[in-house]
Amino acid sequence: MSKSPLSDPITIRLPIDVLAEIEAVAKTCERTRSWVMVRALRLYLAGEGADILAVRKARSEVADGDVHEMDDVLGEIEKIVGGKAA
After folding, report:
1. Rounded CA separation 81/42 (Å)
2. What is the CA radius of gyration of the chain?
3. Domain spans of the chain?
């Protein structure tokens, strides 16, 4: 398995309790603090981060006029529920 390219080092200040938890997990897993933090950031980006980006995309689509009329959407739903759609 090839490693992903890495960025230049970055500096981050963490609350002491958060750093303590990161260090405890790293020690338990026999991994580095960086490994634990990257895993945590990936999980955040896959969850809440993805939701934030989806909202940004939706707002952009609305601003660009890429929308559907609610009556049309409800009509399609009624067709699906009634078994009249493919």
Report:
1. 37
2. 22
3. 16-81
